[in-house]
Amino acid sequence: xxxxxxxxxxxxxxxxxxxxxxxxxxxxxxxxxxxxxxxxxxxxxxxxxxxxxxxxxxxxxxxxxxxxxxxxxxxxxxxxxxxxxxxxxxxxxxxxxxxxxxxxxxxxxxxxxxxxxxxxxxxxxxxxxxxxxxxxxxxx
Length: 140
Description:
Elements: E1 4-8, H1 15-29, H2 34-37, E2 46-52, E3 55-62, E4 67-73, H3 82-96, E5 101-107, H4 111-116, E6 120-121, E7 126-128, E8 131-139
Parallel strand pairs: 4-5
Antiparallel strand pairs: 1-2, 2-3, 3-4, 5-8, 6-8, 7-8
């Protein structure tokens, strides 16, 4: 059973947990610079943290235009449905906020994951932080 998901703010309480997870996944594993990951948009974004037991192990964010991003699950917790849970909760939050469409830039290897969650490819591949991505969207 996937962990418990919480909608949170990027504040003194939850910001360090969000940073810890994203640092482990994006900076350490994927070699993405902190200046690219932490782009100044976090304070205004809606964030999600997924807890497994007593520890937060996954995160993601949604900007006010419905763009979902920075989805990260700690390596040892992948394959357990936590990333899917995070996306589903962010989509629910978008519906609650009246956002008509959500979008995201998927790393090429994750396209199938997002397709299973109802997203469709909607653009040409592009490079971001040296990694091939494709734009995807889902009407709500």
